[in-house]
Amino acid sequence: MIRDQFNNDDQMAFVVGPRQVGKTTTCKSLVDNCFYYNWDNQNHRKIILRGPDAIAEELALNILSDNKKCIILDEIHKYSKWKTFVKGLYDTYKDRVRIVITGSSRLDVFKKGGDSLMGRYFLYRMHPLSIAELSTHTIPEQEIRTPGYIGPEDFENLFTNGGFPEPFIKNNLRFTTRWKSLRKQQFFKEDIRDLTKVRELGQIEILADLIRLQSGQLTNYSNLANKINVSVDTVTRWIKILESLYYCFSIKPWSKNISRSLIKEPKLYLWDWSWIDNRGSRIENFVASHLLKAVHFWTDIGFGDYDLYFLRDKEKREVDFMVTKNNNPWFLVEVKSASNKSISKNLVYFYNQLNAPYAFQASFDMEYIDKDVFSVKGPVIVPLRTMLSQLI
């Protein structure tokens, strides 16, 4: 995607996602001899602080060349004046350099000041590995791809160790446990400390653990505030921080076209589903992560405007997920741990009310079937691994 962008457009590429998801490795593979600068590297930081002209001097941008050079700026969002720096570099040298910005923050949350970068970049959100990514390495030309098979060992590895490259490749529970402990320490002792003004690191760590234990449940801000002895406003602000640093993500309830809809709190899920102990909650988070990756990819690549919701009304009828396409219901997903011969009444109810083209009851334990689940209109029971293999 980014190679195609650089061949056709002048915009910068912003590649964002969780720490250790593979952003830097992926970006370095885009272009041979790409120049790499990491804000966390003291020598690189000194060059960046000297301004765009210092980068231009290092890259010899003032010397006529028939090829654009490539520069990767990693973790640059930690620099308080990063937007001003990047804007100056881009506006002055965009005809001579391709610029990739990577970071483990949303890049627009904490650092204020400087001119807007709107129109100067395209955003790419990088996610952990998925079933579709393991079954095929091609970039799809349309939203839904043909089904792809991964073996039971790879499937169990992905579900157990998570989709972050290093623990998945190692496929060793002891390594995964140590890796998660180190990542947690880096997240709370470095990322939150360095990027926010939060000093109550112990309390925000407890909040993060409560979110982990309540993954997939309605978020009750008052209960969370009482448990960690802070205000509701503080909990709300801290959750936004945890989202901005890719610890968790929220899914809101869909309210349009639903009579007696219940417009309340979102549900929270983790970017790393392997942190969740309860099997049922992990399965639901596993599916939520795959669906979020799909809607982000489809939106970022320009297929349309996609989003992810859950369904719930005042009668407490509920369906786990709904994907929208250009603000219209597209397909519904109800997740089941075990195979079941009967379709959820709630899935049928919301399918009829919303007039969505597709409604899937996705069974985790059901064996893979090499059949396009999107070829079936109306509510249908499908293997979870077949359905997810058709996404991204």
Write the layout of secondary structure elements.
Blueprint lengths: L1 H7 L3 E5 L6 H6 L6 E4 L3 H8 L2 H8 L9 E6 L7 H12 L3 E7 L17 E5 L5 H5 L16 H10 L3 H6 L2 H23 L5 H13 L7 H8 L3 H13 L3 E6 L13 E4 L8 H23 L4 E7 L5 E8 L2 E9 L8 H10 L3 E6 L14 E6 H6 L3
Parallel strand pairs: 1-4, 1-5, 2-3, 3-4, 6-8, 10-11, 11-12
Antiparallel strand pairs: 6-7, 8-9, 9-10
Helix pairs in contact: 4-5, 11-12
Provide a descriptive summary of the structure in words.
This protein has 15 helices and 12 strands. It is globular. Strand 10, helix 14 and strand 11 (358-363) form a beta-alpha-beta unit. Helices cover 40% and strands 19% of the residues. By secondary structure, the protein is α/β, with parallel strands linked by helices. A 7-stranded mixed β-sheet has the order 7-6-8-9-10-11-12, sandwiched between helices. The chain has a 5-stranded parallel β-sheet with strand order 2-3-4-1-5, with helices on both faces. The chain folds into 2 domains: 2-125, Rossmann fold, CATH 3.40.50.300; 131-389, no CATH class. The protein has helices spanning 2-8, 23-28, 42-49, 52-59, 82-93, 131-135, 152-161, 165-170, 173-195, 201-213, 221-228, 232-244, 279-301, 345-354, 384-389, and strands at 12-16, 35-38, 69-74, 97-103, 121-125, 248-253, 267-270, 306-312, 318-325, 328-336, 358-363, 378-383. The model is unreliable at 109-114 (pLDDT under 50). It starts with a helix and ends with a helix.
